[in-house]
Known about the structure:
2 strands
Amino acid sequence: MNFKNIKILTKNLNGIIRDMRYCLIENDEVVYNQNGIFRVNCVDCLDRTNIIQTAIAKTIMNIQVGFEL
């Protein structure tokens, strides 16, 4: 598997991920509402699906803690 392609994919999805936001509640007040989901399905390989889901989750986590990609 070419992991370089995963970095290209997450870089291209970065804007979409930011637009979809995530759910954040602080002091019983909704700060952000999530307004989308990703459905990942690599037809021939469950390992590939898991790698992509992990890469997307890592990108979301980096956005949530304020790291830039």
